[in-house]
Design goal:
alpha/beta; about 325 residues; EC 4.3.1.19 (chains A, B); pyridoxal phosphate (chains A, B); threonine deaminase activity (chains A, B); four-stranded parallel beta sheet; Threonine dehydratase (chains A, B); Rossmann fold; homodimer; six-stranded mixed beta sheet
Chain lengths: ~325, ~325
């Protein structure tokens, strides 16, 4: 109970800190990350039912994911002393490689706590980038995600989801969208931990108030929809689906106040809609994406956005060959 | 012999007409095609041996191919009377759909002569675009490509490779490359019929003389390398390979004088190099491409370009699912 309380307090603090930022904070971040992150393409797709849908292609970052924006904006604001002592994170995905790449010019030491069942290709990639790995079972790993306690007090812990400077780095996507598409009125963003969608929503409010920013999830693995329905984070059982295996999921307490305030809502798509979107992204738009990104495109096509100008954020493209081939199967 | 002679004469005429164009002809074309073609992304890849390689992503055109540049620049210069009488072409690939899309706003009738063994997915796509199809065996179809004689004198024949306005349309890629990458010194372009590489080479000579433009081919299916070796087009047997099945191939007589004058040379890659490049484009760069495009990336990586700034032109992404899955197999 004490932990939950402090999670909520921390969440209110985080929300207030992020919500106070003006447009210049996000513009500054765009400049700060520009040596690591590119301005990603915004590609048109066939119009549907009077709506226009464009794809914001974070899968075309050199690192294959939006996370380089987040990592670069964090790393570039660390002191030389902090960089010297090193950085520790808990990441099963794209955050650790992005930190390694952004930290490399500084000679930064990076330790990553990782679930022991992580894909071999991910482990090999982290090792090739010089990351020191510490393996945990999933429960212990998830506890680090919740408590930030790695037992390594000398190194600075960076959280893959809720670092304020990381959330601001993610918001640079909104700056680009507003620049590239003046008529944009809707943005749909995959929901992982909430750092991406809350960054985009907060930045959009600062530079183009009125643009609606939605998270999206897949049926049977929708902790954010459950949180909105209950009015607070609840744990849901995750059914195996196109985007991920079984498990348990909840929205991080610390992210909830920010998400509740900033998002226009959450859109849930079916497994079949996500699979069709993945296939069309591959064969019609010629983009390789992670399954999460297909959920965003599916949500842009399936939900009621008639007459609107909708950007679907393709958050990343780091999918291995077998998963790609499997996702293209009938 | 008479046909070959006239092919060579026509080739010299074509070369002289294209070679006389200045930069403004290509800049005008860029404006002319802008409602149909986008300025495609130029993406970085990991540096190799001190060379930088960037990918010019024509696979990210809405039509999935550079051919929309070619088609739009041709169609937009036809008279209302010509558009009313209709257009006929011989195409087994991306040219006919691009003509259909560029012609649609004009209500243009389009007839396409097509090899009878064309992939069902291509035939269905053309029918969906309202194209009238005439089927031929491969020999008869290739004769139309050489003679332009379709037995339909009332409709204007547009050749997929050697329309002067089409070649100029392809040259708009060079305009974008020169704008986007001032330090560019080398461009590598897949060789199909020669319209793409000669357009880029001619435009580059006009706007940035000194940039070397190479064609590329795959071992065992290299009619351009054979033409450079012999000093004139020769017919070669095509071995089945990663990019295409068996057959016979030669450089079109009409294209040879232009190619000989404009190109820095031709680079040949192995089947294994092309397969590796395809896989890396898919899994590291997150781009779906046609096999030909992987040859360009392979050539940029394999040939001796140390210290150079090399753009590989990814000509298109229209590959069907089975071919994509097969190309990713070990």
């Amino acid at each position: 109970m004490a932990t939950e309380q402090s999670g909520e307090d921390a969440g209110i603090q985080l929300r207030d800190r992020i919500a106070a930022l003006g447009a210049e904070a996000f513009h500054d971040a765009s400049v700060r990350i520009s040596q690591h992150a590119v301005v990603t393409p915004l590609l048109d797709t066939p119009a549907i039912d009077g709506r226009r849908i464009r794809l914001k292609c974070e899968n075309l970052q050199a690192t294959g994911s939006f996370k380089i924006r987040c990592a670069a904006n964090v790393i570039e604001q660390l002191s030389p002393e902090t960089l010297r002592r090193g950085v520790v994170t808990a990441s099963a995905g794209n955050f650790a490689p992005a930190l390694a790449i952004a930290g490399a010019p500084h000679g930064m030491r990076l330790i990553c706590h990782i679930p022991e069942k992580s894909a071999a290709v991910k482990v090999a990639k982290l090792r090739a980038l010089g990351v020191e790995l510490v393996f945990h079972d999933f429960e212990a790993w998830w506890r680090i995600m919740q408590t930030r306690d790695t037992g390594m007090p000398e190194a600075t812990f960076l959280h893959p989801v809720c670092e304020p400077n990381g959330i601001v780095g993610n918001g640079t996507i909104a700056i680009e969208l507003a620049d590239e598409w003046p008529e944009i009125d809707t943005v749909i963003v995959p929901f992982g931990g909430g750092g991406l969608v809350s960054g985009i929503a907060t930045a959009m409010r600062a530079v183009r108030a009125g643009v609606k920013v939605y998270a999206c999830e897949i049926e049977g693995a929708a902790p954010l929809a459950a949180a909105f329905a209950a009015g607070h984070p609840v744990t849901v059982d995750r059914q195996p689906n196109f985007a991920s295996g079984p498990g348990r999921q909840s929205v991080l307490e610390i992210m909830w106040p920010l998400l509740r305030e900033m998002l226009a809502g959450v859109i849930t798509v079916t497994d079949a809609e996500a699979r069709k979107a993945f296939r069309d992204l591959t064969l019609d738009s010629h983009l390789v994406v992670e399954a999460q990104s297909a959920i965003a495109y599916a949500a842009a096509r399936s939900a009621d956005h008639s007459g609107r100008n909708v950007a679907a954020v393709l958050s990343g493209g780091n999918i291995d060959r077998d998963a790609l081939v499997a996702a293209l199967a009938d």
